[in-house]
Amino acid sequence: MSLLLEPLAYAFFVRALIAAVLVGVVSAALGAFVVLRGMAFLGDALAHTILPGVVGAHLLGWPLSLGALLMGVLTAVGIGAITSRTALKEDTAIGVIFAGMFALGVAMLSATGNYSQDLAHFLFGNLLGVSTADLWLMAGLSGFVLLILFLLYKEFMVLAFDAVLATALRLPTAFLNYLMLILIAVTIVVALQVVGIALMLAMLVTPAATASLLTKRLTPMIFVAAVLGALSGIIGLYASYYLNIASGPAVVLVSTAAFVLAFSRKLLLRN
Known about the structure:
Helix 2 (11-36) packs parallel to helix 8 and helix 4 runs parallel beside helix 6. This protein has a single domain, classed as ABC transporter involved in vitamin B12 uptake, BtuC. The chain is built from 13 helices and no strands. By secondary structure, the chain is an all-alpha fold. The model has no long low-confidence stretch (mean pLDDT 87). The chain is globular.
């Protein structure tokens, strides 16, 4: 019991624990739709394209979340506009924007004096450095994403399983696609300080992918993914405390281990 209670004596650890649970739940819930729609590459691209916004906010002394949110939303809308108004396929448009924006962010960062340290912070997060103000922002943005998913659950479900049916039912598919992109961008901002830009895709995809191996229905999949995401955050944070390893990668490794176990179980049941 002392192993569980000892870290809780530190306020920074408690804040980090709350942040890890928030990120685990909201990333996994949205990740269920990302996995079903095959949007993993898009999520990874969005995570990397916010780097110029983060660096710009850092250089101007603004909150990093503000720069990330602005750039994330602009990128999401830009990808949607390019794919809907040109003959380019979505993955091509994503690849072009992904490479260009990430390169811009690295170039901006290289102009500062603390290139290596700042880049590592942005790429891999700083979970133990989460402040009370960060927590309130994360809670607000997480609540916004979860509320939209709750209100438009049926519409997103139809679009995820059958886009043709969604069009036949006269659902606003273009609006829903843009909204999904924006929700992914907002979720990336929520997870920015916890796992960073480089590892964000793991929190968005891995718990949902694990849940998809355990259940085939969407609603249970979302709940299982959210529980797995929260547990990954908690176990990963404790592991980072006792093993003296980086917190963000520790959270992702726990999540990946859960996927490996679920995949192994599925293989054993098949045989």
